Amino acid sequence: MAEAPALEEGAKEAAQTGRRAGRHDLRIAFVASEAEEAQRALATLKRRYKHVPTTEEADVVVALGGDGFMLQTLRAMIGQGTPVYGMNRGTVGFLMNEYSDDGLTDRLHKAQSLKLYPLRMSATRVDGTVVEAIAINEVSVFRETRQAAKIDIRVDGVSRLNGLICDGVLLATPAGSTAYNLSAHGPIVPVGAGVLALTPISAFRPRRWRGALLPQSARVEFEIRSTAKRPVSAVADSTEVRDVRHVAIHEDRTVAATIMFDPEHNLEERILKEQFTA
Fold this sequence. Notes:
Largest sheet: 6 strands, antiparallel
Structural class: alpha+beta
CATH architecture of the largest domain: 3-Layer(aba) Sandwich
């Protein structure tokens, strides 16, 4: 995830982008989920604001939908480096800004940017094939059947926990710490803390293990035991790989997604507020 200075650096980058494009000439591309509400917002904004037809031509991408669509858009933009400004037309909208069809250009110029470094997953199936994927929120492994999963955990090549019997286990970024990780009773991790959250999902043995906080440089491996009897799938955000025997995860600092927020509702503040929510 991002260090604290990345917020300021991202804001400077956004300002530089605005100066290059001209105060009123930001090249905006609109994308939206298939939800009816998002599609209505898309039509409205396209009528009101000058825009370019593809994200490749854009200075900023405006994403309309929920958190799932926002994650999808951020992953797609990692290769292009184009910042994404989301407006909520979904349910929770933790990664989104409030929707309004007024004053969009001014909001984009005032928005603060933050770099999110993804987790990179390399999942090896039982048949030996390897699938790689990236995750903005978390990488999880889950049991596929009624049988609990049995998992060995290594961190930086050192065996830390053998024979974890559970429904699954996940590794979350600070951005993802308030999502599934929080539902699994994992800790909320502030942006800039420099750590990842390793959290079990319904652990049976050892029953009292509640997970760990790991440095962002950690390389985590999940080795799946008894794969025939206890099959397991691996999921990087929305990318699922079935019947895995080994999963390796690390934070990839060579690429980043840039997310934009209105100054009064930036991601750092939202994560902090979540820690005081009853």
